[in-house]
Amino acid sequence: MMIERRDLLGRGALFAAAAAAAVLVPSVSLALTKDQAKDYVQGTIQEVAALVDSAGEAATKTPRLLDIMQRRAAMPQIARFAAGVSWRSMSDDQQARFTTAFGKFLAGIYAKRFQEYSGETKAADAFRIGKVVDAGRKGMVVQSTVNRPNEAPVQVDWLVSDQPGRVVVADIVIEGVSMLITEREEIGSMLEARGGNIDKLITDLAA
Q1: What does the pLDDT look like over 145-164, one tens digit per residue?
Q2: 10 Å Cβ neighbour count for 55?
Q3: DSSP output for 161-189
Q4: Domains observed in the chain
Q5: What angle do CA 137, 140, 143 make, to 5 degrees?
Q6: Which residues, in sequence order, are CB contacts of 67 under 8 Å at separation 6+?
Q7: Per the confidence metrics, is the pTM higher than 0.70?
């Protein structure tokens, strides 16, 4: 029953993530294959795992994680999606500053989360790549699980796209929860708490 529920949650979130990815990137395809998507996710996991397993605190790892994200994920498009309808009201300068600040903000969050797993087991050994599902023009969904000692495996699905003109991770869905949608909701709440002041939001994200 638990497996069936996870599958149901995962499918729903992946449909939502795929729909989000459709508006994230222009329609430029490089004919991404399942093997290419799988290899790309494997390479991304290896880079992140090496960072997680390295010495140092989360604060020192944040810039390195940001570098990985900028190289391997669709960060400009993800930032634009996270901004939601507010993106259209931003000036060019605000859009540029928001994109930079959001990247730092997201890297900081995940650096802290990854630090919680450091030392339990080698991060690279915790991941198991599963099957790859063709999501049509949206890209490929690479399924994986994370195994931690004395805990149930965690389902992590990677939406990989080549629509920006290069292969990128467009979304990560953890136990049915889309990173894209989660961050859009979080940024929306943060902006509302600041009375819609975009410059205040950017300043706080950068901090």
Answers
A1: 988 878 889 999 999 999 88
A2: 7
A3: E-TBSS-EEEEEEETTEEHHHHHHHHHHH
A4: 2-206 (3.10.450.710)
A5: 155
A6: none
A7: yes
